[in-house]
Amino acid sequence: MLQPNTIRFLQNLQKNNNKPWFESHREDYEAAKNDFEDFINSVIVRYAPQDDDLAGLVAKQCMFRINRDVRFSKNKSPYKSNMGASLSRGGKKSPFAGYYIHIEPGKSFVGGGIWMPEPADVKKIRQEIDYCFKEFSDIITSKKFVGVYKDLDRSAEYSLVNTPKEYEKDNPAAADLKLKSWIAIRPVTDEELASKDLLKKVTLSFGALQPLLRFINRSIE
To answer: What value does the mean pLDDT take over residues 203-210?
Structure first.
């Protein structure tokens, strides 16, 4: 579970996203950051025995900075209103598929996959889906996966309008070949964030995602 003060800090940051307020509440931020780091380390310790890709990882390798890069954004708020961590082989900068934890009051989620991979990796993943479509389909329609995630995220931002030119329009895998990112997410309520069962729910969600990650990473390798 996360401490109530961590959730409260993020709620207050949403309302006061400016440097003077942040600096005056830096101690609260450091406490929230440490709490989140402790939780991520707990996730790694609990789940790494099930996934060798997380072996040796520590939270600091996975956590994202709270400062926003505002150089090319119309939104000039200096801070993210969330805390996030990407758990994958090699940490947050890894090119491989992995797990993700996003803590933001009212908008928290867990899940993962691979987000906007490089064109060469997109080609590899699509090829593997085409060659091994039954295996891929079995993964994303399995009772365990559907029970947690329902489906892959097929939002317009993650999908082409048309089937890639390398494949026929009537390809059985067309809907999955159109994807540019292969990710799945499970919303997490504010009540769950403060629940003693949070660690268990996160690791169970990871377990439902692991076959998909293995398929994607095998494709890239």
So the answer is: 98
For 118, counting Cβ atoms within 10 Å of its Cβ (0-12 exposed, 13-18 middle, 19+ buried), the class is exposed
Q: 3-state secondary structure string, the chain?
A: CCCHHHHHHHHHHHHCCCHHHHHHCHHHHHHHHHHHHHHHHHHHHHHHHHCHHHCCCCHHHCECCCECCCCCCCCCCCECCCEEEEECCCCCCCCCCEEEEEECCCCEEEEEEECCCCHHHHHHHHHHHHHCHHHHHHHHCCHHHHHHHCCCCCCHHHECCCCCCCCCCCCCCHHHHCECCEEEEEEECHHHHCCCCHHHHHHHHHHHHHHHHHHHHHHHC
Q: Rounded to an integer, what distance in angstroms lies between the CA atom of residue 62 and that of residue 84?
A: 8
Determine the residue type at 188. Answer: V
- Tens digits of residue pLDDT in 2-24: 999 999 999 999 999 999 999 99
Strand partners, 56: none
pTM: 0.93
